[in-house]
Design brief:
The chain is of the alpha+beta class and 413 residues long. The protein contains 9 helices and 21 strands. It has helices at 2-11, 45-59, 61-65, 83-98, 108-114, 137-150, 194-200, 310-320, 366-381, and strands at 18-20, 37-38, 71-72, 76-80, 104-106, 125-129, 133-135, 154-156, 161-167, 170-176, 179-182, 186-188, 208-218, 231-232, 246-247, 271-274, 279-284, 287-291, 328-339, 346-349, 356-360. Helix 1 (2-11) packs parallel to helix 6 (137-150) and helix 2 packs across helix 9. The protein is globular and about 60 Å long.
Length: 413
């Protein structure tokens, strides 16, 4: 997130910027440990708008930023198995379509066609957005950072912030392990460590670190029969009828099945999410990346893989994607979500300390929203109109009485 802010400031001509990174390399924290998903399908209008702008930049990243990235727009497929979820998604699909997003309603058969090998038992409906996809977190981070550096920004690696000096209610300097940086503006882009950095300035930043696991499965190539990639027919944006039935792609039979044999896993990078359980998967090289949220996880900075959680994931995984029963787990890792109480981020000036800005608490969606969020905060810092209603992301919203879960983001995966 810090690299995006630095890049956008530099594009506005503000190059007297120091990006401080605690690790020896950029993007090795939460950014480097996420699944790379980017999607339009959110429940909150402000997050949908962040997605529209962010995905637009990712689609033209090489031309606009100057560095190529790996970006597969094979879509996000949400699987719904309860009437309550269908009701929730009905409202939110209407919201997404009202903002110009192409989201399609599917039935269980259509969902299984889009994700070969999927067991659609119990699925009552699904939604699919073809412009959602999987991007490369490292490529995006380094693209922002390299262009920012070329424009004059300084990137200091292996440097830790140890304090923030505040005088007369205003930031005056940042203390680091390599000395003092005198400044009247500080941006807290510390991800899951945002609360700690906030305390240095005397500001409460309500962000908690929550561990999330990712597993990589590999398959015996002698038994794996992936489908060829399928194309999705264009669909109208009105109505709730099942739409987007796949058309047979190259190398398939008229029924849409691969001519070489029965399908086991998708060959595209489609992201499939079982909404009730939060189990998700997508193709990763020759294998499969998958994960699921642990509802009993408590705040922690521990990123040790809890292997005793894997059987709970597998119970769900082999039901929804039976091919995983024949897979081996090649490796796994854990990262940290930076969660706010309402699962919406904090973007803008901090309450109580002038010159202290926040871009925190994206609740698992920071990488995918970093292009837009960085641009918005750069505009705020430079006194420009961000062309974005930041009220849902204001720091001060947590001081007001809660208005209920509906005011925040409901689609946290």
């Amino acid at each position: 997130m810090g690299a995006s802010v630095a890049y956008h400031l530099a594009r506005l001509g503000v190059t007297d910027v120091v990006l401080v990174e605690r690790e020896k390399m950029l993007g090795t924290g939460s950014t480097g440990r996420n699944a790379g998903g980017v999607r339009h399908q959110f429940s909150h209008e402000a997050n949908i708008r962040l997605s529209i702008e962010s995905i637009g930049l990712l689609e033209h990243f090489a031309a606009d930023v100057g560095h190529p990235i790996d970006f597969h727009q094979d879509g996000y497929l949400f699987l719904l198995s309860t009437p309550a979820s269908v009701e929730t998604f009905t409202r939110n699909v209407a919201l997404q379509r009202g903002l110009g997003v192409d989201v399609r309603w599917l039935d269980a058969h259509d969902a299984a066609q889009l994700a070969p090998g999927l067991n659609a038992d119990g699925i009552v409906a699904a939604t699919f957005c073809p412009r959602d996809g999987i991007a490369d977190p490292n490529g995006v981070t380094m693209g922002f950072a390299k262009t920012a550096q070329a424009l004059g920004v300084s990137v200091e690696r292996d440097v830790e912030v140890t304090g923030i000096n505040v005088a007369a209610g205003r930031v005056t300097a940042v203390e680091t392990t390599r000395g003092t940086i005198e400044t009247r503006i500080v941006v807290n882009a510390a991800g899951p460590h945002a609360r700690l950095i906030g305390r240095m300035a005397g500001v409460d930043v309500p962000v908690d670190p929550i561990r999330r696991h990712i597993f990589i499965a590999t398959f015996d190539s002698s038994t794996l029969r992936p489908f060829d990639q399928l194309r999705v027919a264009p669909s109208p944006v009105e109505g709730r009828e099942p739409q987007g039935r796949p058309e047979p792609g190259r190398g398939t039979t008229g029924s849409g099945q691969a001519s070489v044999g029965p399908a086991r896993i998708p060959s595209s990078h489609i992201m499939v999410i079982d909404f009730e359980t939060t189990f998700y998967f997508h193709r990763e090289g020759a294998g499969l990346l998958f994960g699921m949220g642990d509802p009993y996880e408590t705040p922690t900075f521990d990123t040790t893989v809890q292997w005793d959680f894997l059987p709970q994931v597998i119970d769900v995984a082999v039901t929804r994607l039976p091919a995983l029963a024949d897979a081996s787990i090649s490796h796994a890792w854990a990262g940290l979500y930076e969660m706010t109480p309402d699962a919406n981020p904090i973007i803008g000036a901090a309450d109580g300390v002038e010159g202290f800005y926040l871009i925190n608490g994206f609740s698992g969606h920071g990488f995918q929203h970093s292009p837009a969020a960085g641009r918005i905060l750069a505009d705020v810092i430079t006194g420009r109109d961000p062309r974005f209603d930041l009220a849902p992301f204001a720091h001060g919203r947590f001081a007001a009485p809660p208005t209920g879960a509906a005011s925040g983001e409901r689609y946290v995966v």
